């Protein structure tokens, strides 16, 4: 994998980001080029306008190709959105020969069996993540390869998404003259760039505040234990500022970025901000503290929903690593204090710089690039087990939603291939 170019494609609600990178001689990630354009065809992490999304991807690819002086053909893509769900399931495999050691093939068989689960119509599996293994009733085994045993069981954390959302992403990528190598859940990708092994072992909650959604991933003992998506993000705050202050959308975004603060009590002297309005109307004056109150109200709602998911996971009292905030929404002033106040857990901002090689630009330090950098790191480290591959996406897309339809297609194919068969 050394020297091989890897490209990530982060199709977000507010931006489409393409990064080109490779592993350097020290095992670090070297960013060679990037392309960033405004996203206009994505709503709450889901493609809502195919043509606008394709145009955005093409523009970002052209910009990244010029920046890195390479031709891009294959990309690693992130997926998010409120359609993402997770569930826990246990699988079991009875081995034929107790004298043979448990091999990777046995584990792969268990994982493949999880892909046969009956899901609600339209849902498809994105990740199958082993939690722990059980060998002949012996629980708590992290890696059973090389052990002896007849019965091999495993608890799995399974992440699913709507097939229509997956197919729309794939369609946008293909119509941009690209090939999708892997498809990964965005908070899992972000964790690769902003979390370290010690935090994952001790217990940590990653909160990725994007434009359309806020994603949660909880890690404990080095394993992802719970995932959730809240359908609110930075755009919700911008809309609140627009309506609460009666300003245009672009001015509301600038107010949030430049003067926004998550905690009103952190503002010592409340300045009055004057902004232009429509032609012919006088400038509008807005108190900085009132602006902070609007932001705080929406962020409090988001954090209450995140904290509910943390408690629901059962790991609330096991998160020694606290909360790590990333994504563009985590750049608000005072957000660390606000999250600590609402959750009672320690918090920090996750900047995706730990795995970058020397010489990276200051812009890459921003948490808004955590997902794009994480997608490259995930591929670079070859940690893609359980990720929906491009060819798998084609396969599941062609399957029927019901078991009857699949059986009917199989019988039809057999009859067509065996015209002289006796029925």
Give a description of the structure.
Strands 3-2-1-6-11-19 form a 6-stranded mixed sheet, with helices on both faces. A 5-stranded mixed sheet has the order 14-13-12-17-18, sandwiched between helices. The termini are far apart. Helix 4 packs across helix 10. With 423 residues, the protein is of the alpha+beta class. It is built from 12 helices and 19 strands.
Give the helices and strands, then pairings:
Elements: E1 6-11, E2 15-23, E3 29-38, E4 42-43, E5 46-47, H1 50-68, E6 74-79, E7 85-94, H2 104-114, E8 123-135, E9 138-141, E10 151-162, H3 163-175, E11 179-185, H4 186-194, H5 197-202, E12 204-209, E13 214-220, E14 223-230, H6 234-245, H7 249-259, E15 272-275, E16 284-287, H8 288-313, E17 323-326, H9 335-343, E18 347-349, H10 370-380, E19 388-389, H11 390-398, H12 403-417
């Amino acid at each position: 994998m050394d020297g091989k170019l890897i490209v990530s494609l982060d199709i977000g609600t507010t931006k489409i980001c393409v990064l080109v990178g490779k592993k350097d001689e020290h095992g670090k990630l070297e960013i060679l080029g990037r392309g960033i354009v405004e996203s206009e065809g994505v709503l709450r992490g889901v493609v809502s306008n195919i043509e606008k999304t394709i145009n955005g991807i093409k523009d970002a690819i052209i910009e990244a190709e010029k920046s890195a002086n390479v031709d891009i053909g294959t990309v690693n893509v992130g997926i998010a959105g409120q359609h993402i769900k997770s569930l826990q399931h246990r699988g079991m495999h009875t081995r034929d020969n107790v004298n043979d050691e448990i091999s990777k093939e046995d584990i792969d068989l268990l994982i493949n069996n999880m892909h046969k689960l009956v899901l609600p119509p339209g849902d498809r599996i994105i990740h199958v993540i082993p939690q722990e293994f059980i060998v002949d009733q012996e629980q708590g085994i992290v890696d059973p390869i090389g052990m002896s045993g007849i019965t091999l069981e495993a608890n799995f954390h399974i992440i699913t998404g709507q097939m229509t959302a997956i197919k729309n992403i794939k369609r946008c990528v293909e119509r941009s003259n690209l090939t999708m190598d892997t498809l990964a859940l965005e908070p899992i990708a972000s964790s690769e760039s902003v979390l370290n092994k010690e935090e994952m072992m001790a217990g940590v909650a990653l909160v990725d505040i994007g434009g359309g959604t806020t994603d949660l991933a909880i890690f404990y003992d080095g394993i992802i234990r719970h995932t959730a998506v809240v359908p609110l993000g930075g755009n919700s705050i911008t809309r609140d500022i627009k309506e609460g202050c009666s300003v245009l959308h672009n001015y509301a975004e600038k107010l949030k970025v430049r003067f926004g603060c998550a905690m009103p009590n952190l503002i010592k002297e409340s300045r009055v901000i004057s902004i232009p309005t429509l032609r012919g109307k006088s400038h509008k004056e807005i108190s900085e503290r009132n602006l902070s109150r609007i932001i705080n109200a929406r962020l409090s709602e988001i954090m209450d929903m995140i904290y509910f998911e943390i408690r629901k996971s059962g790991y609330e009292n096991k998160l020694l690593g606290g909360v790590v905030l990333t994504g563009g929404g985590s750049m608000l002033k005072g957000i660390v204090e606000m999250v600590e106040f609402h959750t009672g857990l320690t918090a920090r901002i996750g900047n995706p710089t730990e795995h970058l090689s020397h010489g990276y630009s200051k812009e890459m330090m921003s948490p808004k690039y955590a997902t794009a950098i994480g997608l490259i790191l995930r591929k670079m480290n070859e940690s893609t087990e359980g990720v929906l591959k491009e060819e798998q996406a084609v396969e599941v897309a062609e399957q029927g939603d019901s078991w009857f339809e699949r059986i009917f297609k199989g019988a039809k194919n057999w009859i067509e291939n065996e015209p002289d068969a006796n029925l």
